[in-house]
Each structure stands twice: as C-alpha cells, then as structure tokens.
Design a protein that fits this description.
This protein has 328 residues and is of the alpha/beta class. 37% of the residues lie in helices and 14% in strands. It contains 11 helices and 11 strands. Strand 9, helix 8 and strand 10 form a beta-alpha-beta unit. It is globular and about 70 Å long. It binds ligand PBG and zinc ion.
C-alpha cells in the first residue's frame, strides 16, 4: 500500500480545479512591500535602466505611481533616498537632513494614503562620499560605533517625519540597540524596527547600486555584510538583532538564501521578511527578454519559493505587478 500502483500522485493533479484545491494559497498582496527610490524635487519620473519597470520618483510622482499599486491591495512601501549634487561627506550626514528626499516624501505619502505602511531604509552609503555604509576609521575600515551613532540619527529623522518603521541595512554590530535606544529617547516608542538582520555580501545588489548611485568607490562590503561561506555567523546576526529589540528580522537576498530564510524562521518567533533584491528581479527580466522564460510565470514561481521557505512578508520590486503575476 506504500507505493505504486496503489499510490498514484497524479490523481492529486489531474485537473486544474483539483490542482487549485490542493495548492497552497498564493501570498496576498498585503504581504508585499514595494521598495521605491525617491529623489528630491517635483515631476521627476526617471527610468532605471538596470531595473525594467522601476523608476526614480519625486514624491508627487510617487503618489501617482502608487494609485494602481494600492488598488491591487499592496499596503506598504520601503523608501530609499538619494542625495544629489555636492554635500556627500565622510560620515553621511545628509542622510539625517530633515529636508532630505525621504523625510520630505513621508508626509506627502501619508496625506495621500493615510493607511499606507511606510518603512524607510536606514543606511549611509547613498550619502557618504566614499559610498560605504558608515564613516571610515584610520585603517580604512568602516568605523562601527561611529556608524551606529549616525544611523540612530537617521532613524530618528525618519520617525520624526512619520515613518511607521525603520529598516537599518548597514550591518553594523549593535545598530539595532543603538537605534531602539535613540527612538525611545526621542519619544518614538511606536516605531517598528525591522532589522536587515542577515544581509549577505552579494552580487545581487548590482542593479540597485546603479539606481542609488551607492557603489563603494573603493573596496567592497565584505568587512560588514555577512559571508555566504559562513552560515552559522549569518544566523547569529539574526538572533542578536532579535535580542537587541528588533520587531522583525530579514534575510537578504532571498532566492540564493532560501535555506537561511527557513533556518532563521525556525529559530525565531519574530516575523522573517525576505528581501527579493534588485539582481533577482533584473535577472528574471533579462532571461525573459532573451526568450528563456515567461516573465510573470517565472516571477510567480520564484515568489512561491520565498514563501515556501518560510518568509512571512516579501520586500519585492514585483509588488506593483501583483495582479499580472498572481492573476487576481
Ligand atoms: C544599502 C542597501 C543595499 C540594498 C538595500 N540597502 C545595497 C548594498 O548593500 O550594497 C540592496 C537592495 C537591492 O539590491 O534591491 N545598504
Ligand atoms: Zn549601505
């Protein structure tokens, strides 16, 4: 009775209706967080060549761009800012400017979409002259504790502008407790703290760095981002962030790290978000353009993989295309 011919698994997939009945439900649009790039000024909608279908948007244009996205049931964005012109410095101080692109966009979005869940990326690489995620010390390393201090100031500036949650992505030791402390001290006790807890040094950030103009001018990020060759330490990163007071954890990238999503979700009771990063998005676009696969069907298959691995939410550039991908 344990095998063929008594067991015939094909019975469970004979017709489309039967397959639907036994399928896991697709992730709802409310599980998606759309990462967007905000730029200063108005009426700006600039195509990002390395990420088809994504744009650098001024706040007014983002309000317009969001209407059909929100109409599909997507409820959340993750804002990335940019600093243009002079003023990038050694420590990334423009990141905490109360008149920065992100700080200005938040109230504009809030007015247009009162229920939108607004997260902000908290990092310094788009604001430092050298493109690293914190100031450098005398040896040329990123100075951990000085970075934490600056990151806390940035997080507070986002909370003050009205962000629902802040998501620090610099991979500095102690950044979660530094930010939680600063938020509490400034009276922001309701701000969600979403840790990019296990973020790997990855090739998959290429298109994003092009969009953000945030590639390091020298060296790379292996001195602070997690190593894909050291999975145990990568798990410790997430567990430490939980202990430091994160409200949610994150694994990033998602598709080459499905085992890490599974492992972190089995070791923590916190939500585990997955960041389906720029390279993962652009690779599927490139393959589809070459005719190797169907764009939306491949996106769908990859998103199912992320949720099967145990992700509780996904941060994904596919969010605005939810209906095309899941057919609802
Ligand atoms: C900045 C940051 C990066 C991403 C999110 N925040 C790039 C990096 O670490 O170099 C990558 C997002 C993506 O590729 O979609 N710290
Ligand atoms: Zn950074």
């Amino acid at each position: 009775m344990n095998g063929y011919p008594d067991v015939r698994l094909r019975r469970l997939r004979r017709t489309a209706a039967i397959r639907d009945m036994f399928a896991m439900p697709p992730p709802g649009p409310e599980k998606f967080i759309w990462p967007v790039f905000v730029v200063p000024g108005a009426r700006r909608r600039e195509r990002i060549d390395s990420m088809p279908g994504q744009f650098r948007l001024s706040a007014d244009e983002l309000v317009k761009e969001l209407a059909p996205v929100v109409a599909q049931g997507v409820k959340s964005v993750l804002l990335f800012g940019q600093h243009e012109g002079d003023g990038k410095d050694e420590i990334g101080a423009p990141a905490a400017d109360p008149h920065g692109a992100v700080q200005r966009a938040i109230p504009v979005l809030r007015a247009a979409y009162p229920d939108l869940v607004i997260f902000t990326d908290v990092c310094l690489c788009a604001y430092t002259a050298h493109g690293h995620c914190g100031p450098r010390d005398g040896d040329g390393d990123v100075d951990n504790d000085a970075a934490c201090e600056m990151l806390a100031r940035v997080a507070v500036s986002h909370a003050r502008a009205g962000a629902d949650g802040v998501a620090p992505s610099a991979m500095m030791d102690g950044q979660i407790s530094a930010i939680r402390q600063a938020l509490d001290d400034e009276g922001f006790k309701k701000t969600l703290l979403v840790a990019y807890s296990t973020k790997f040094a990855s090739q998959m950030y290429g298109p994003f760095r092009d969009a953000e103009n945030s590639a390091p001018s020298q060296g790379d990020r292996q001195g602070y981002q997690a190593s894909f060759r050291d999975p145990k330490t990568a798990i410790r990163e997430s567990l430490l962030d939980e202990a430091e007071g994160a409200d949610a954890l994150m694994v990033k990238p998602a598709l080459f790290y499905l085992d890490m999503i599974r492992e972190v979700s089995s070791r923590s009771l916190l939500p585990v978000m997955a960041y389906n990063v720029s390279g993962e998005y652009s690779m599927i676009h490139a393959a589809a353009e070459k005719g190797y696969c169907d764009l939306h069907a491949t996106a769908r298959e990859s998103l199912y993989a992320i949720f099967r691995a145990g992700a509780s939410q996904v941060i994904s550039y596919w969010a605005p295309f939810y209906r095309e991908i899941f057919g609802k």
